UniProtKB/TrEMBL annotation:
<feature type="transmembrane region" description="Helical">
    <location>
        <begin position="337"/>
        <end position="354"/>
    </location>
</feature>
<dbReference type="InterPro" id="IPR018456">
    <property type="entry name" value="PTR2_symporter_CS"/>
</dbReference>
<keyword id="KW-1133">Transmembrane helix</keyword>
<keyword id="KW-0813">Transport</keyword>
<feature type="transmembrane region" description="Helical">
    <location>
        <begin position="285"/>
        <end position="303"/>
    </location>
</feature>
<protein>
    <recommendedName>
        <fullName>Solute carrier family 15 member 1</fullName>
    </recommendedName>
</protein>
<dbReference type="GO" id="GO:0035673">
    <property type="term" value="F:oligopeptide transmembrane transporter activity"/>
</dbReference>
<dbReference type="Pfam" id="PF00854">
    <property type="entry name" value="PTR2"/>
</dbReference>
<keyword id="KW-0571">Peptide transport</keyword>
<keyword id="KW-0325">Glycoprotein</keyword>
<dbReference type="GO" id="GO:0016324">
    <property type="term" value="C:apical plasma membrane"/>
</dbReference>
<feature type="transmembrane region" description="Helical">
    <location>
        <begin position="206"/>
        <end position="225"/>
    </location>
</feature>
<dbReference type="GO" id="GO:0015293">
    <property type="term" value="F:symporter activity"/>
</dbReference>
<feature type="transmembrane region" description="Helical">
    <location>
        <begin position="124"/>
        <end position="145"/>
    </location>
</feature>
<comment type="function">
    <text>Electrogenic proton-coupled amino-acid transporter that transports oligopeptides of 2 to 4 amino acids with a preference for dipeptides. Transports neutral and monovalently charged peptides with a proton to peptide stoichiometry of 1:1 or 2:1. Primarily responsible for the absorption of dietary di- and tripeptides from the small intestinal lumen. Mediates transepithelial transport of muramyl and N-formylated bacterial dipeptides contributing to recognition of pathogenic bacteria by the mucosal immune system.</text>
</comment>
<dbReference type="GO" id="GO:0015031">
    <property type="term" value="P:protein transport"/>
</dbReference>
<feature type="transmembrane region" description="Helical">
    <location>
        <begin position="6"/>
        <end position="27"/>
    </location>
</feature>
C-alpha cells in the first residue's frame, strides 16, 4: 500500500460537472486574499502615521513582514505533507491568521491608551507590541496556507477531470486578483474615514477590522464545505527527501575526498549508495533550475516596493482626479488592474507578433526582459521623485531660523534684520516668503511703518519657522513673533490651517467640525489638521453676530494662514497666506512606472513559473514552488539590507541605486541563461522508467535461475 495515494472522500455533489466543494475553496481564497492585501495596502502608512516611525523604519518592518509571509510557505508545506494533511493545516493556520488580523485591528485603536484624551496614544510601546504579535501571526497564517489551498482544490478532481481542473486553477487565480483589487480600493477608503471615542483619528481599526472579518468569513466558508471535501492523507514531503539526498551526497563526498577514490560524473552521484537513481536524477534537474533562481530575488526587491516606497512617494503628490480623490495607498490598485488587462494582451497579441517576426523569444529571454523593465520602472520613479523634490519647501537646519512677515496694517512696512543682515519691505496686507537666517547672527528686528518705528530683540531657538505679525496702529506698531512649530510638510496629503484675527473684536472660529477657540484682536490660533482636496465651511461669531464663508479648495499637503480682515452678515474679507505650498505633482505621473513594472511582472513572473514547471520532474513541482516563494522572501530581505546600509539622503538616488543593481543582476542572468541547456523532464523520466523496467527484468531472471538449478537436481 506504500505506493498508493490514500484519501478520505465524503459525498461529493457536483455542479456543472465540477465538484461542489471547489466553490467553497474559491470563495475561501477570495476572502483570504482580500484580507491579506487589504491589510497590507494600509500597513506602511499605519507604521508611519500611527506608530510614528520614519520612512526607513516603516520600509524595513514592512519588507520584514512580507519576507516572513514568503518564508512560511515552506513550513506550511512540511506540516501539510508530513503531519496534518492539507485540510487540517488550512483550518489550524486560518484560525491563527484570523486572530492575527483581530490583534492588528485592536492594536490600531487610539483610545486604547489615550487616557488623557489628547488624540495621541499614551503608551505607544503597547501598540507596537500588539502590532508585532499580530503581524507574526498573520505571516504564519497566510504563508502557511499559501501552498495548501490551491493544491487542496486540485485534489478534489478525479483523474479524468483534467479539463475541469485546469479551469479551476484559472478561476482560482481570478479570485486572487479580484480579492486583491477590491481590497486595495476599499481598505484605503476605510482608513481615510475618521473614527474614535474621545478623538477623531484616521480609522485604522476599521481598515484592519474589515480584513479580519473577511478572514473569519473565509474560515467559516471553508469549514462549511468540510463534508464534501476529498482529503488526501499526508504521504511525506518530497522536499525532505531532496534535502536528505543532497545532505548525504555532500557528506559522502567529504568522507571520500582522498585521491584513491575515483571521481564521479556529478557530485550528487555520491548519494547513489543510499538513494535510488531516479531521485538523484530528479534532484539534479531541480538544482539546475534553482541555480537560475539565484539572481531572481533582485527583481522582487524592486517589485514589492510598490507597497512601501512608492506608496510613501504618493503621499507627497496630488491625488485630485476630478470627481474622485485618490488616497496614496489606493495607487497600488493600478498593478492588479493592469495585470488583468495586460496578461491577455501579451499572450494574444505581443507574443504572436514577436513570433511572426521570427524572434526566438525563449522563456529565459522573457525573464531577462522582465528584469530590465523593472529597472526601467525605477528610473521612471526616480524622475518623478526629482520633480517632487523641486516642489518641497526648504525647512531650517539646526542652526538656522526662518521668518515670514505678515503686514496686517493699512500702511507699508519695512523690517531690518539686525545687525544689518537684510531689509525687507512689505506692502499693506501682504506677506513675504520665509527668509532663512543663521540663528547666531540675528540679534534684533527694526520695524518701520508710517511715522512709527520699533525695535524688537530676538532670541530664537534655531531649527524652527516663525511668523512676524506687524500692524501700524494709532498707539504705535504692534508686532509679535510667533513660533509656527511646523518643520515638515503635512502627512498623508492633509492640510494645516490657522487663523489670524485682524478685527478689533474677539471672534470665535469654527472650520468644518473643528473649533479654533476665541481669538482676541490680532491674535492667532494653533494649526489644525484638515483632509486634503476639499473645501470647508468657516463659521465666525463676532459680538454674537454670525458670519460664514466657504474656504477655497485646499489641495493636498499644504499649510495656510487665513487672515480675517472683515466678517459680517453682509460681507467677508479673508486672505490666504500660503505657508507650505500644496502638492503639485499629480499622482497620475506614477502610472508610467506602474505600467512598466506590470509589463515586467507579466513577462517575468508568469514566464518564470511556466519555465520552472517545464524543466522540473512531475513530482518536484512543489520544490520549485517553494524555491520561487523563497526568492520573493530574499528579495524583501535585500530591501532591508539596502535601506539599512544606504547612506543616500535623496530618495531619487535610492531608486537609481536599485535600478542599477537590478541592471547588473540582469546582465549576470543573461549570461547564465545563454549557457543553459533546455531539457525535457518527461523524456528523461521515460528513460528512467525504461531502465527500471530492464533492471526489474534482470532481477527477475536472476531470481529464477537458482530455482531452475534446484529443480534439475
Amino acid at each position: 500500500l506504500s505506493g498508493l495515494t490514500l484519501s478520505v472522500s465524503c459525498f461529493q455533489p457536483s455542479c456543472f460537472g465540477y465538484p461542489l466543494s471547489i466553490f467553497f475553496i474559491v470563495v475561501n481564497e477570495f476572502c483570504e486574499r482580500f484580507s491579506y492585501y487589504g491589510m497590507r495596502a494600509v500597513l506602511v502608512l499605519y507604521f508611519k502615521y500611527f506608530l510614528q516611525w520614519d520612512d526607513n523604519l516603516s520600509t524595513v518592518i514592512y519588507h520584514t513582514f512580507v519576507a516572513l509571509c514568503y518564508l512560511t510557505p515552506i513550513l506550511g508545506a512540511l506540516i501539510a505533507d508530513s503531519w496534518l494533511g492539507k485540510f487540517k493545516t488550512i483550518v489550524s493556520l486560518s484560525i491563527i491568521y484570523t486572530i492575527g488580523q483581530a490583534v492588528m485591528s485592536v492594536s490600531s485603536i487610539n483610545d486604547l491608551t489615550d487616557h488623557n484624551r489628547d488624540g495621541f496614544p499614551d503608551n505607544i510601546s503597547l501598540h507596537v507590541a500588539l502590532s508585532v504579535i499580530g503581524l507574526i501571526l498573520i505571516a504564519l497564517g497566510t504563508g502557511g496556507i499559501k501552498p495548501c489551498v490551491a493544491a487542496f482544490g486540485g485534489d478534489q478532481f478525479e483523474d479524468d477531470q483534467e479539463k475541469q481542473r485546469s479551469r479551476f486553477f484559472s478561476i482560482f487565480y481570478l479570485a486572487i486578483n479580484c480579492g486583491s483589487l477590491l481590497s486595495t480600493i476599499i481598505t484605503p477608503i476605510l482608513r481615510g474615514q475618521e473614527c474614535g471615542i474621545h478623538s477623531k483619528q484616521r480609522c485604522y481599526p476599521l481598515a484592519f477590522g474589515v480584513p479580519a472579518a473577511l478572514m473569519a468569513i473565509s474560515l467559516i466558508v471553508f469549514v462549511i464545505g468540510s463534508r464534501m471535501y476529498k482529503k488526501v492523507q499526508p504521504q511525506g514531503n518530497v522536499m525532505i527527501r531532496v534535502f536528505k539526498c543532497i545532505g548525504f551526497a555532500i557528506k559522502n563526498r567529504f568522507w571520500h575526498r582522498s585521491p584513491e577514490y575515483p571521481k564521479r560524473e556529478h557530485w550528487l552521484d555520491w548519494a547513489i549508495e543510499k538513494y535510488d537513481k531516479r531521485l538523484i536524477v530528479q534532484t539534479k534537474m531541480v538544482l539546475k533550475v534553482l541555480f537560475l533562481y539565484i539572481p531572481l530575488p533582485m527583481f522582487w526587491a524592486l517589485f514589492d516596493q510598490q507597497g512601501s516606497r512608492w506608496t510613501l512617494q504618493a503621499t507627497t503628490m496630488d491625488g485630485n482626479f476630478g470627481a474622485i480623490q485618490i488616497q496614496p495607498d489606493q495607487m497600488q490598485t493600478v498593478n492588479p488592474i493592469l495585470i488583468i488587462i495586460m496578461v491577455p494582451i501579451v499572450d494574444a497579441v505581443i507574443y504572436p507578433l514577436i513570433k511572426k517576426c521570427k524572434i526566438n523569444f525563449t522563456p529565459l529571454r522573457k525573464i531577462t526582459v522582465g528584469m530590465f523593465l523593472a529597472a526601467l520602472a525605477f528610473v521612471a520613479a526616480a524622475l518623478v521623485q526629482v520633480q517632487i523634490d523641486k516642489t518641497l519647501p526648504v525647512f531650517p537646519a539646526g542652526g538656522q531660523s526662518q521668518i515670514k512677515i505678515i503686514n496686517l496694517g493699512a500702511d507699508a512696512a519695512s523690517v531690518t534684520f539686525e545687525p544689518q543682515l537684510k531689509t525687507v519691505n512689505v506692502t499693506s496686507k501682504e506677506w513675504t516668503d520665509y527668509i532663512t537666517f543663521e540663528t547666531s547672527q540675528l540679534r534684533s528686528l527694526s520695524i518701520t511703518s508710517g511715522n512709527n518705528r520699533k525695535t524688537q530683540t530676538t532670541n530664537l531657538p534655531g531649527g524652527n519657522r516663525h511668523t512676524l505679525e506687524i500692524k501700524n496702529t494709532l498707539s504705535g506698531i504692534f508686532s509679535e513673533l510667533i513660533l509656527d512649530n511646523v518643520t515638515s510638510k503635512p502627512e498623508e496629503g492633509n492640510n494645516l490651517i490657522r487663523f489670524i484675527n485682524n478685527l478689533p473684536d474677539t471672534i470665535n472660529v469654527t472650520m468644518g467640525d473643528t473649533y479654533f477657540g476665541a481669538l482676541t484682536s490680532l491674535s492667532d490660533s494653533d494649526y489644525k489638521t484638515f483632509s486634503g482636496g476639499r473645501t470647508y465651511n468657516v463659521a465666525v461669531m463676532r459680538n454674537s453676530v454670525p458670519c460664514s464663508f466657504t474656504s477655497k479648495p485646499l489641495g493636498f499637503g499644504s499649510a495656510y494662514t487665513i487672515v480675517i480682515n472683515e466678517c459680517s452678515e453682509q460681507t467677508s474679507d479673508v486672505v490666504y497666506s500660503e505657508d507650505i505650498p500644496p502638492n503639485t505633482v499629480h499622482m497620475a505621473w506614477q502610472i508610467p512606472q506602474y505600467f512598466i513594472l506590470t509589463c515586467g511582472e507579466v513577462v517575468f513572473s508568469v514566464t518564470g513559473l511556466e519555465f520552472s514547471y517545464s524543466q522540473a520532474p512531475s513530482n518536484m513541482k512543489a520544490v520549485l514552488q517553494a524555491g520561487w516563494q523563497f526568492a520573493v522572501a530574499v528579495g524583501n530581505i535585500i530591501v532591508l539590507i539596502v535601506a539599512g546600509a544606504s547612506k543616500l539622503s535623496e530618495q531619487w538616488a535610492e531608486y537609481v541605486l536599485f535600478a542599477a543593481l537590478l541592471l547588473v543582476v540582469c546582465i549576470i542572468f543573461a549570461v547564465m541563461a545563454y549557457f543553459y541547456t533546455y531539457i525535457d523532464p518527461n523524456e528523461i523520466e521515460a528513460q528512467l522508467d525504461e531502465e527500471e523496467k530492464k533492471q526489474a527484468n534482470k532481477d527477475e531472471i536472476l531470481h529464477h535461475k537458482p530455482v531452475e538449478a534446484d529443480s534439475r537436481m
